[in-house]
Amino acid sequence: MIKVGIIGSSGYTGGEFLRILAGHPEAEVTYLASHTYAGSRVGDVLPAFAHAPWVFAPVDIEEMAAQCDCIIAAVPAGAAMELAPAVLAAGKKFIDIGTDFRFHDTQLYKKWYGIDHSCPDLLPKAVYGLPELFRDQIKGADLIGNPGCYPTSILLGMAPALKADIIDPKDVVVASMSGVSGAGRKPTVTNHFPERTENLCPYGVASHRHTPEIEVQAGLYGKTEVQVSFTPHLVPMSRGILSTLVLKLRSAMAEDAVRELYEEHYRGEEFVCVLPPPALPQTKAVAGSNYAHLAVRVDERLGRLLVMVAIDNLGKGAAGQAIQNMNLMFGLDEGMGLRTVGLYP
Amino acid sequence: MIKVGIIGSSGYTGGEFLRILAGHPEAEVTYLASHTYAGSRVGDVLPAFAHAPWVFAPVDIEEMAAQCDCIIAAVPAGAAMELAPAVLAAGKKFIDIGTDFRFHDTQLYKKWYGIDHSCPDLLPKAVYGLPELFRDQIKGADLIGNPGCYPTSILLGMAPALKADIIDPKDVVVASMSGVSGAGRKPTVTNHFPERTENLCPYGVASHRHTPEIEVQAGLYGKTEVQVSFTPHLVPMSRGILSTLVLKLRSAMAEDAVRELYEEHYRGEEFVCVLPPPALPQTKAVAGSNYAHLAVRVDERLGRLLVMVAIDNLGKGAAGQAIQNMNLMFGLDEGMGLRTVGLYP
Amino acid sequence: MIKVGIIGSSGYTGGEFLRILAGHPEAEVTYLASHTYAGSRVGDVLPAFAHAPWVFAPVDIEEMAAQCDCIIAAVPAGAAMELAPAVLAAGKKFIDIGTDFRFHDTQLYKKWYGIDHSCPDLLPKAVYGLPELFRDQIKGADLIGNPGCYPTSILLGMAPALKADIIDPKDVVVASMSGVSGAGRKPTVTNHFPERTENLCPYGVASHRHTPEIEVQAGLYGKTEVQVSFTPHLVPMSRGILSTLVLKLRSAMAEDAVRELYEEHYRGEEFVCVLPPPALPQTKAVAGSNYAHLAVRVDERLGRLLVMVAIDNLGKGAAGQAIQNMNLMFGLDEGMGLRTVGLYP
Amino acid sequence: MIKVGIIGSSGYTGGEFLRILAGHPEAEVTYLASHTYAGSRVGDVLPAFAHAPWVFAPVDIEEMAAQCDCIIAAVPAGAAMELAPAVLAAGKKFIDIGTDFRFHDTQLYKKWYGIDHSCPDLLPKAVYGLPELFRDQIKGADLIGNPGCYPTSILLGMAPALKADIIDPKDVVVASMSGVSGAGRKPTVTNHFPERTENLCPYGVASHRHTPEIEVQAGLYGKTEVQVSFTPHLVPMSRGILSTLVLKLRSAMAEDAVRELYEEHYRGEEFVCVLPPPALPQTKAVAGSNYAHLAVRVDERLGRLLVMVAIDNLGKGAAGQAIQNMNLMFGLDEGMGLRTVGLYP
Known about the structure:
Order of helices and strands of chain A: EHEHHEHEHEHEHEHEHEEHEEEH
CATH topology of the largest domain in chain A: Dihydrodipicolinate Reductase, domain 2
Number of domains of chain A: 2
Low-confidence stretches of chain A: none
Largest sheet of chain A: 7 strands, mixed
Oligomer: homotetramer
Distance between the termini of chain A: 34 Å
Number of helices of chain A: 11
């Protein structure tokens, strides 16, 4: 039984870990740490756990490293880099849900996040935790930078086309739409219910910090320079991300040929489902699950490939993917505890 | 491994059975029958199952009775009574999600549902499947009338007060509010998204067919005549029922005393959670789960007891409860496959 | 042209005043005051006014009283009593959207709101601004306590039955359901979008501060003691209140007779619409309007009268009703500027 | 007083005409025709009009042409072309909300809509009713093809850049997101509330019929060939469209310069609001209104111009714009009856 410690367990991603791990046969949460709610009943903070006797503990990283096999941190940018060294020094594994270990280039990190990295020596050991792209490295890793929710959806949508070199990697236009849980649990006027319901808006236009993550990881995977115009939008729902990628085909291809390429690429991948036409992805079909639903279309008139991908931002986009990484790191069945189907309707 | 056949598996309750049973270690769905979608891929009809290779089969009740240990029917009123006899004759178990086996009194059934019962001889064997009230009978049953969603919430809220005889059973006023999935999957103008979002209305005022079900079962449980003023409302959400019961205390009681009575009554019940104050039930905390969350308050000024209960209408209010009944009928751990926590947020 | 000054104009009710008064032919907002946003562009705070050149002014009550004919305050409990005296002293009219002038009994006010009233001498002049109940007093008033949103819906539902003395005024059970805008614009975890969407809960059970307001005003109108069990619920929508009143008929009455009584009572009332069966009120039909939709049903089995009322909490429940009062106070056509129909769908 | 007849007045766009025209001082609806609901009370079909005494009339186009000054048709593709000739023959004006008079090229219309045009001789007289682009032609027109909702938002977003020739007109990528009311009132499983709430999906990928409308009208306005990759998405809300245009700048331009160009272009346009940074458009700010909110951003890194536009699909995207056209056609103040501000929150 893997002993898991979670830091930031009172937030949305933290709660999703508790929910998923409650059904994991080979892992259990033994340390629930929260900066904000230490001492509170978990059920008072996360009402779905009203029946649970648990109480949040304070964040004591040495103690956690001593007691747990794997520490998962769902904390703001800059906080995980203060926690990881102690965990690795204790010979335990660390998964950062945030951004601190997604970039090997500290300059780039500084540029977009404004933070000087405090443990650059650990970065060469950090693996970007997107199993469908980097499974082999993840298996041997002790330190994971778990991907962002938008990048997960977009990288899954681009990977087959990049690998097969059928698109121009510098002409990538993406519109993504996200549920509000991606913004976290801190209340704001922007996400106050009356302002957000029946409302739709773009945000972070030409400036969202997931842009370099997408470009760097797509570039590493495709071994080429990738440029992405990425525009996120906020949609009146709690969970779910849908990304629509508009790609430029290098030369004309029939839609069937592209779909076969995608199907072949993802054959054997348990959590990526290339939908048969006429189906298109919808976020509700993957809500609460670790699945990614994907469809491709070719616009022959314009020579463009359109790829649509739906995930749950808290599932495949955060906690689900982290558990998938944990399973790989500990040599378990990769999908263990993750086969729950989307809550539809 | 219990072999389960589901009739009406393309609807919302049917889909919920597939979702729950996918995680049940001792039962598997071996026969997915649908009148409407026989021959279709399940994933084309229920998009959360896009990855599943299943195809809906036609409804052939003899074949199902031969192949399965337990048949669950999620069909309209009047349809299950045509199916149950063949299943019982084959020595198998039958759970009706609908209304055909909830009443022993065929006159009352006829009055509210307008249907002559076609197998009144089976009714004495039918057990009302609310485990927290009638567990012992369920354990020995072959035929279950699975409770309605509203009655489940209301009976759980009344049971301790009825048993302890602290309320006037003829002065019960209930306002219930339900998500729209309770109305099923057939599209109507009333539940067309633009009309239902940001909208709230009562319906079935002084005439809803769950009224006699509540009164009869509460009466049987409390061994007294019960009269309920029941008003349901439709709320712009997919899942969830909240019932607020306004009861008249026979004599003054402190709130703490009532809460202790409720806690004592439900001690050991895995799926009923009496919330500690100041918590009040909220539907999202139980969404996708088999839990019922319950709180009590006493209005000393008016001598009234208020009980609020939240369930998922498709979970504890339908499919979850049916699996709980199935577990009891087959001698399994009652909560097997049902311990998933609510999808919050 | 009536010059109107609004205090608290950056909140939801304040914004609704601006929206309504933009279409009022005989009144204009000449002073938009905000404690929080003084100096900010109105369009930056209230995005529907992006095209407007207005800037919020600070709250300077003497200056406002000097410049305006009518001051409307949408401020927290306890704040309006500090503002009203200066306005009345200047010979101008004052409408308090909040609670400070709804009670003549300072003891009762203190008990429920915990505030010592600072100008009890003004209370005898204060009129409770529900035109359908107290029109004549409103016409001559300089000081209005504008009704709460819940009380408006409930008093409109009870008034005809009280006046005709067909119900027991001490056996009144009300369940109300409200959109979230009623809670104001201050963000909280409770009303953070991901927690509120697809969620439903009761709150303020047996303790909501609108209870005494309902009882007092119903008592004054019906000239009898009224006791109300009132339970509010929070529903995942922005606007709208629906109240379901369960009343005890003194003696059996046919539904048609009750409906005729209600229709007769409200004949000539422009903003109260008694719906013909089988219609029932729905909040969306009155969203953004000053209308109240009402339906009655009789449960002959239980001898109960059910009355359902829908309003927009920001319209008839706040700003719309205040404008209706203002029109009356200034001798204008009562419905001027208020005939906008609900935004459906 | 202009006498207006509406055909298809029981649908969402029809209802929006009734709502807007109820507040129009120089026009009144004198003929409400409905194929489906002739003989029904309007309030039974459109619940916001519960107080109105109106009854739907059958569609008798000769009678309508005789009685009315202006006929507005909100009918399916192919139906308006059967109605317009009689109206024009009677010397009256006709506004088609649908698609029959948006294209002068009958071949193109046939290709995308599959319909042979029955009155091609009228097409040279038909004007595309987007006042901000084609105001002068509209003023003299008797026959208007009212723009589609998506094209309205996209054309408003492209027009200044096209006119100033700062973008490549063949490299236009648009992601649009729409509320569900755009799909009309006919209930479907796709738009059944439980399936649509908390759900998000693309549709009509690389095949939506608004594509040629956008390309043709943008081309006419910009006097150049325009190619648009257009992907619409369905969002869980009733009203509102947001379009995000990703355009390729011909050469580097500072964001301020582009914004000034847009501001200058729309100076004096009452219903187009170029938002000052950091504001971005949000659909709720324009809900129920005729306003378009627009913002521009330049991604200097990629040399791209991003334009975001929000409208109400039933307002500026349909009924509001048609009234704006009617005002122009009859020589009235263009914004008469249309100055209602968005219903926020």
